[in-house]
Specification:
Layout: E1 10-16, H1 19-31, E2 39-55, H2 58-83, H3 89-114, E3 121-137, H4 138-151
Antiparallel strand pairs: 1-3, 2-3
Protein name: Putative membrane protein
Pfam families: YflT
Domain General stress protein 17M-like: 13-85
Length: 156
Amino acid sequence: MLSDQTLTGYEPVATYGRYEEAQRAVDYLSDQRFPVQHAMIVGMDLRMVEKVLGRLTYLRAAGMGAATGAWIGLLIGLFFAIFTPGRFPWILVLWSVIWGVVAGAIFGLIAHAFTGGKRDFLSSSAIVANRYELRVTTPQAAEARRLLETGIPQHT
């Protein structure tokens, strides 16, 4: 994580509404042989956005636990199948997956029960910036501004 101290010696040369636009500006500077090691993209006015994906029911908690358990069971079963001599190693894999599903479903139910209904929804979180500043070290700032003004008119 960068501190405000890290921004010392850097001047904003352009501001963009989307990260891709700022990235394109740095790419343009690189194409113009500008020393891009003197540039940084800084996300400004950060906010956390949490998108609610749906309700978390006991059935869904058990299903998610079962799916996780199946993967763990598959991994354990494959490990046993590789190192156990015998004619039917796939039986070990199958039983490991079955037990993984059962154990995962039980653990999923128990974990959901312990939340006490305080968080019975699924969500996805992201940190999003309102705008992105392209900053360049002070000695190179004027050259970067000149190049961007002549080449990429999308900056503000």
